[in-house]
C-alpha cells in the first residue's frame, strides 16, 4: 500500500515537473537557432557585390552590440556566472524586432558576443545561451557578427582568432545589402597585434584592397562596422581602453574617407557616444565621417539603458536612432 502510494506521489511529482517545464518553455521561439551567418573567404553567401551590389530602395537594419552575458553580474560584484538579465534583454529585443514593420534587412552584432575571455570555463555556456536568445529573431532576418575584445582577448593570439573563426566565421569580411557596401573589421588587431602581427597585416592589406574597391565602385554608401570605435568623442582624445590607439587613428580615418566611407558603427563603450570628424582637404573642400558609438544590448556603464540602434539607409543619407528595448518602434517610416 505504502509502496503504491509513494509510486503515485512520485508519478504526480514527475507529472507536475513535466507540466511546469512545458509551461515555462518559451512559446514565441519558432526558429532553428542558427541564423548567425558565417563569413567565409571574407564574404557572406548571397550578400556579395554580384547579388546585392545595386541600389533599389531605402531600407533599415539593426545595429546591436555587446550582449555580453555575465557582465551585469560582474558589475554587481558577482563572478560573472549569472546572465539571466542579458538573455531576457536579448530575447525581448528579438521579439520586438520581429514585430517591426517593415522588417529590417539584417541585424548586426558589433562584438562581445560573450563576456568570458577565451579559455575561461563559462564561455561555452554563455555562447550557447546567447545564441539561443538571438534565435528568437525571425529566421528570415540574417544576423552578421564581428569580434570584440571579449571574444578574442584584449591581446589576441593566433589560437583565439582561430577558435573565433571556427565558431563565428571570418573575423573580417565585406558584405553588400541593397547597393551598400559594409566592411566588418577585427578591431582587436588595431588595438594590440603583438601576438598576431602576420594575421593583422593580412587584414590591413585586405582592408586597403576593399577600400580601393569601394572608392572605385558605384555603391550607394560605404559603412564600416568595428567593435572598438576610432574614437569616443573626438579625433583629438588621447589613448584610452575604449578607442583605437592614437598611433593608428588618423591614418585609419583618412583611409576610410578616401574611399568615401560615411559612417562607422561601433560598440565597446557600453554608452552612447561618437561625433562627426571633418577632414579638411588641401584643395579647400572637406569630407565628413560620423563615428557612432552605440550602447550595449547588455550591461550599461553610463546613463543609457540596454537597447539597439535602428539605422535607416536612404538613397542620399544614412540616419540612426538608439532605442531602449521597451521603446523599439513597431513601424519604421522610410521615405
Ligand atoms: C518572419 O518574417 C517573414 C517575412 O517578413 C514573415 O512572412 C513571417 O510571417 C515571419 N514569421 C513569423 C513566425 O512571424
Ligand atoms: C600589447 O600587449 C603586449 C602583451 O600583453 C604588451 O606587452 C604591450 O604593452 C601591449 N601594447 C600596448 C600598446 O598596450
Ligand atoms: C581606385 O583604385 C586604385 C587602385 O586600383 C586606388 O589607388 C585608388 O585610390 C582607388 N580610388 C579610390 C577613390 O579609392
Automatic annotation (TrEMBL):
Entry superkingdom: Eukaryota
Gene3D superfamilies: 3.60.21.10
Keywords annotated in UniProt: Signal
Pfam families: Metallophos
InterPro entries, alphabetized: Calcineurin-like_PHP, Metallo-depent_PP-like, STPP_CPPED1
Signal peptide span: 1-30
Record keyword Repressor present: no
Signal among keywords: yes
Domain Calcineurin-like phosphoesterase: 92-271
Protein name as annotated: Calcineurin-like phosphoesterase domain-containing protein
